[in-house]
């Protein structure tokens, strides 16, 4: 198809992460597209200054706008309230409610699915609902709503074969894999890099399923230096269990983050992710990755060539992988070459080809 009017749908645009990165890239591919979202924080996205952004009723209620993810009962209604009647192509970025947007009957809805709702389909992994009063009731209700919204999606695209398998398992639907725009192609061959220093680096939101606690305990035992970047609800607890070789730097600027990627010995990534952008960012800087050998990591990290994969989310397994890593040699050009598979240009070409053939 050759769309005349395109709508890009984001679940929320309040902070920067992997899902938001996809949305920003979609807006580059379709510069005339309109952006729809439930809530929007303009200060987090200076590059969208002057862009028309249509929001839901949550934007008008400060207490809801600032705590939107904690108020899941409101979110399905919020995404359904967005009016997309004028658009012939709707592209939603969805890891929760995004695909629940309602389109016109004639329009095509392409859903870029980062994951089926993790706190609904895998509450043992993402425990935000199961911990609260009436959490199991909410899980049951959201599961029914989530399945119902699949009827409004014409094409499912996903970020990895791991996610593709989960879409098949939970929804009994097929999806096409297009790896997300994890990095800019222009960023890969950076010259004049600083020298490596004697520390390891981990960066992400500080939430339970990222399993930074395992990395901290492993490095406490190893007695090696680990720098942790990021913020989140588990930060205070993680600081309490951290030994003297663990340091926290908060949420770094892009410049500081790049310097940490380029100067560390390796990036530690103990999470099971559907895709995981951090390992790609590391490899784009020629940095090997020590990662949990499950999920998207098995598609983005080549064991023994661009990093080391460990078999279990256990302290012992991380320690053994670090010790294995330190006995190996890695070729920086090989690591960067692997990162090329996950660039903005690859994403753009694959997506446009798919849309052309719809």
Task: Describe the model.
Helix content is 34%, strand content 14%. With 358 residues, it is of the alpha/beta class. It has 2 domains: 6-181 and 343-356, Rossmann fold; 185-341, 3-Layer(aba) Sandwich (Rossmann fold), CATH 3.40.50.2000. A 7-stranded parallel sheet has the order 3-2-1-4-5-6-7. It has a 3-stranded parallel sheet with strand order 8-9-10, sandwiched between helices. It is globular and about 60 Å long. The termini are close together.
Task: Compose a concise summary of this entry.
This protein is an alpha/beta fold and about 350 residues long. It contains 14 helices and 13 strands.
Q: What secondary-structure arrangement, pairings included, does this model have?
A:
Blueprint: E1 6-10, H1 18-29, E2 34-37, E3 53-54, H2 62-65, H3 75-80, E4 89-94, E5 108-113, H4 118-121, H5 135-149, E6 155-158, H6 161-171, E7 176-177, E8 200-203, H7 212-222, E9 226-229, H8 235-241, E10 246-248, H9 254-263, E11 267-269, H10 278-284, E12 289-292, H11 297-300, E13 307-310, H12 315-325, H13 332-339, H14 344-356
Parallel strand pairs: 1-2, 1-4, 2-3, 4-5, 5-6, 6-7, 8-9, 9-10, 11-12, 12-13
Helix pairs in contact: 7-12, 10-13
What brief labels describe this structure?
single chain, 358 residues, Rossmann fold, 2 domains, 7-stranded parallel beta sheet, 13 strands, globular
């Amino acid at each position: 198809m050759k769309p005349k009017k395109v709508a890009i749908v984001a679940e929320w645009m309040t902070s920067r992460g992997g899902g938001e990165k996809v949305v920003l890239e979609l807006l580059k591919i379709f510069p005339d597209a309109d952006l729809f979202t439930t809530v929007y924080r303009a200060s987090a996205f200076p590059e969208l200054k002057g862009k028309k952004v249509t929001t839901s009723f949550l934007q008008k209620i400060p207490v809801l706008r600032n705590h939107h993810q904690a108020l899941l009962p409101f979110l399905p209604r919020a995404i359904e309230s967005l009016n997309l009647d004028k658009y012939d192509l709707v592209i939603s970025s969805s890891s929760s409610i995004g695909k629940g947007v309602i389109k016109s009957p004639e329009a095509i809805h392409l859903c870029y699915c980062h994951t089926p709702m993790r706190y609904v389909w895998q509450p043992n992994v993402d425990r935000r609902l199961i911990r609260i009063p009436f959490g199991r009731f909410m899980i049951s209700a959201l599961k029914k709503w989530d399945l119902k919204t699949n009827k409004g999606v014409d094409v499912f695209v996903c970020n990895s074969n791991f996610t593709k398998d989960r879409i098949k398992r939970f929804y009994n639907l097929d999806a096409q894999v297009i790896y997300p725009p994890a990095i800019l192609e222009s960023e890969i061959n950076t010259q004049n890099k600083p020298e490596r220093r004697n520390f390891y680096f981990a960066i992400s939101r500080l939430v339970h399923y990222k399993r930074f606690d395992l990395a901290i305990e492993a490095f406490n035992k190893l007695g090696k230096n680990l720098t942790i970047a990021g913020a989140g609800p588990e930060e205070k607890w993680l600081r309490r269990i951290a030994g003297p070789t663990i340091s926290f730097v908060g949420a770094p600027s892009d410049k500081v983050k790049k310097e940490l990627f380029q100067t560390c010995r390796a990036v530690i990534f103990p999470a099971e992710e559907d895709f995981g952008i951090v390992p790609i960012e590391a490899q784009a800087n020629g940095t090997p990755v020590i990662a949990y050998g499950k999920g998207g990591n098995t598609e983005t990290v080549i064991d023994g060539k661009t990093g080391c994969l460990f078999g279990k989310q256990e302290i012992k397994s991380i320690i053994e992988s670090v010790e294995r890593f330190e006995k190996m040699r890695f070729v920086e050009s090989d690591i960067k070459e692997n990162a090329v598979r996950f660039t903005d240009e690859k994403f753009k070409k694959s997506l446009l080809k798919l849309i052309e053939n719809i």
